[in-house]
Write a structure and sequence with these properties.
With 293 residues, the protein is of the alpha+beta class. It is built from 7 helices and 11 strands. The radius of gyration is 22 Å and the shape is flat. Belongs to the encapsulin family. Family 1 subfamily.
């Protein structure tokens, strides 16, 4: 992959400094890039890769009579960038071998760009031509419950709907931050962890996915959802002044739903609106607003 456009060689950052920043960015992104754990990932295909072929064509007027012309359809990749700063004093400490570097700008940028990617995959990005999973599915959303101890019923119903549509498992559960917190903190009557019960129903993982509203059950059988990375997430250099170095995280990607029936949305409120499910730990119902995503 050509990375010259990242201009890293122009930055006042040592080789050791870049290695440290790359490792820190990777560790933060690995946690937040939840969508990639649940859909097929292809790439990286390079910064120059511009469009995903759709395998379809549309008629095109020929340059003269007696000819038949078709134009191949593609989905252009979108470029996404999150800017941040690192203090030059902190970079000097990194070169000295500091173990507890303070990188709040990187923390925020990593979460911001990961949430944008997750949102595009699950809820779409109209301006980029990306149809999200919850937009594409023909299944009606599973409505919220008043008591979070009933969450397994929602998931079991969602899995049943998918199986009845001919979609095989195992299945994964993408959980928005509010839903994830409620699930991992909850225990059912008898002390059984709610998260373990859900994993048994799904035969697959529960994944924290910032950017997701509510939760989404998706089939993990493969071939249903395709994420294509041109340039995978990389650190680039923008400029610097006496106090700070201006950097960014950047990627290019497209996303395509091949089988709309292979997922179902567990909504946070009635229909497809934003909100929060009820949550409980130890059997007590908690108001829905306490678990907004």
């Amino acid at each position: 992959m050509s990375a010259n456009h990242l201009l890293r060689e122009n930055a006042p950052i040592s080789e050791a400094g870049w290695s440290f920043l790359d490792r820190e960015a990777t560790s933060r992104l690995a946690v937040a890039l939840g969508a990639r754990k649940l859909v097929d990932f292809h790439g990286p295909l390079g910064w120059e890769y511009s469009a995903t072929p759709l395998g379809r064509v549309e008629p095109l007027a020929g340059p003269q009579d007696g000819l038949r012309a078709l134009r191949r359809r593609v989905l252009p990749l979108v470029e996404v960038r999150a800017d941040f700063e690192v203090s030059r004093a902190e970079l000097m400490d990194i070169d000295r071998g500091v173990l507890d570097a303070s990188l709040p700008g990187l923390d925020a940028a990593a979460l911001r760009i990961a949430a944008a990617e997750n949102t595009a995959v699950f809820h779409g990005w109209a301006n980029a031509g990306i149809l999200g999973i919850t937009e594409a599915t023909p299944h009606e959303p599973v409505p919220r419950v008043e008591d979070f101890n009933d969450y397994p019923k929602r998931v079991a119903h969602a899995v049943s709907v998918l199986r009845q549509a001919g979609i095989g498992g195992p299945f994964g559960l993408a959980l928005g931050p509010g839903h994830y917190t409620a699930v991992v903190e909850a225990t059912e009557r008898g002390g059984y962890l709610l998260s373990e019960h859900l994993s048994t129903i799904l035969e697959g993982p529960l994944v924290w996915v910032p950017g997701v509203t509510g939760a989404v059950v998706v089939s993990l059988r493969g071939g249903d959802f395709r994420f294509e990375a041109g340039q995978d997430l990389s650190l680039g250099y923008q400029g610097h002044d006496d106090d700070s170095v201006h950097l960014y995280l950047e990627e290019s990607f497209s996303f395509l739903v091949a089988t709309p029936e292979a997922a179902i949305h567990l909504s946070s409120a009635a229909g497809r609106t934003r909100g929060g499910d009820a949550g409980a730990a130890g059997g007590e119902a908690v108001p829905a607003e306490d678990f907004e995503d």
